[in-house]
Amino acid sequence: MNEKLVIQIQAYLDGELSAEARLQLLARLEKDSEARELCDSLKAEQGFLKDVGENSHELPVAHSYFWKAISDEIQPHPSPRNETRHKEAAVAFQRWSAWLVPGGVIACIALVVFQKGVLDDVLDGIKSTGKKAARVAPSFHEIDSQQQNAGFISFRSESEGVSVVWISNY
Amino acid sequence: MSADFSFEDREETEVVSAAKTGDAVAFEELVRRHGDKIFRRALSMMRDENTALDMAQLAWIKAWNRLSQFHGDSSFATWMTRVTINVCLDHIRKAKRWKFAESIEEMDENSGGVERKLPVVETNPTEGLEREELKKTIDRALAQLSEGHRAVIVMHTFEEMAYKEIAESMDCSIGTVMSRIFYARRNLASILKRMLEEDSQS
């Protein structure tokens, strides 16, 4: 029998033929007894497989074991490799931060020295404009830090000729 | 939220919705409900228990990552089965293990014609067997099919997938699917007949 016809019959049984092709095939089946027999045979085979169904198989492992492998993938725990990376990053940060405090202190001192110079210049200016009499020079000045993030406060005692720098450690 | 929240008695749609929001407990419940079916489908495709186990787990992982693509057009079980079939087909493709004729023309060239290679089985070869025995016999016969033929039988007969859907999954034309289904059925019938003859002789 023509293979094309066999496959057409199969497609007809599977409900996959177009309306036109279906009508043509039905007309052929009416006339061709051999084609009709093959159609019945294929129909029986297909029905048989569907009716009997599949053998039942169950998971050969416990659900908890099966799920664990899935769970590890969808909710990954930190791998040893990642943990090592995190540790290395923490050590590098500690090394770097060890320089942060002394560096900050040096920067603060430099800032105070710079501000003292500016302050002296301002006071000199006041003296030279004759306004000194109108002002009572304080025995010391509290110089507010403009660098809030630097975390320091400095005091300057003109009478004592001493500067004190308070450095906050945060 | 979900740590002390059980989905055991929940409707499937609720469980799926929760899983789609990233709730792993809900997803575990889906695995619990459909684990056997998905494994069974993977086993019917791969025929090796360990490989089927790997494929089933991989399918669940893929499903978790693609849950947003599930819109409820079919049941979750159907969607999940499609995911499993595609995972298995990918595995087979990668292993380059397609061993069956790609078309009727190729089969004709190789064997000298359809009729000689695969005689039509006129009678029901499994007549007289009990249902459970029949299932086991079919199972053994399926195991003897090539992976390609087994795949189309599983997809078409057991999953009731349309030609077009099978063609998309197998990355081939509808014509090729039609010929594969035809040869797969013929082959299966021949194997069943042979097995039963051997059984009756022994």
In short:
With 170 residues, chain A is mainly alpha-helical.
Blueprint (SSEs and pairs):
The complex is a heterodimer of chains A (170) and B (202).
Chain A: H1 3-13, H2 19-31, H3 33-52, H4 63-74, H5 80-98, H6 100-128, E1 140-143, E2 152-157, E3 162-167
Helix pairs in contact in A: 1-3, 2-3
Chain B: H1 12-20, H2 24-46, H3 49-65, H4 76-94, H5 104-111, H6 114-117, H7 131-144, H8 147-158, H9 163-170, H10 174-201
Helix pairs in contact in B: 1-2, 2-3, 2-4, 2-8, 3-4, 7-10, 8-10, 9-10
For the secondary structure, the number of strands of chain B is 0
Can you summarize the main beta sheet of chain A? 3 strands, antiparallel
Mean pLDDT of chain A: 76
SS-derived structural category of chain B: mainly alpha
Which pair has the most extensive contact?
Answer: A-B, 37 and 47 residues
How many domains comprise the coordinates of chain B?
Answer: 2
The rounded distance between the terminal residues' Cα atoms of chain B is: 62 Å
Q: How far is the N terminus from the C terminus of chain A?
A: 92 Å
Largest sheet of chain B: none
Mean pLDDT of chain B: 83
Which fold name fills CATH's third level, the topology of the largest domain in chain B? Arc Repressor Mutant, subunit A
What's the quaternary structure here?
heterodimer
DSSP helical segment count of chain A: 6
Q: What's the number of structural domains of chain A? A: 2
DSSP strand count of chain A: 3
Care to describe what's here?
- The complex is a heterodimer of chains A (170) and B (202).
- Chain A is built from six helices and three strands.
- In chain A, 8% of the residues are buried.
- The model of chain A has no long low-confidence stretch (mean pLDDT 76).
- With 170 residues, chain A is mainly α.
- Chain A has a three-stranded antiparallel beta sheet, with helices on one face.
- With 202 residues, chain B is mainly α.
- The longest helix of chain B has 28 residues.
- Chain B has ten helices and no strands.
- In chain B, 70% of the residues lie in helices and 0% in strands.
- Chain B is globular, with a radius of gyration of 20 Å.
- The chains are: A mainly alpha (170), B mainly alpha (202).
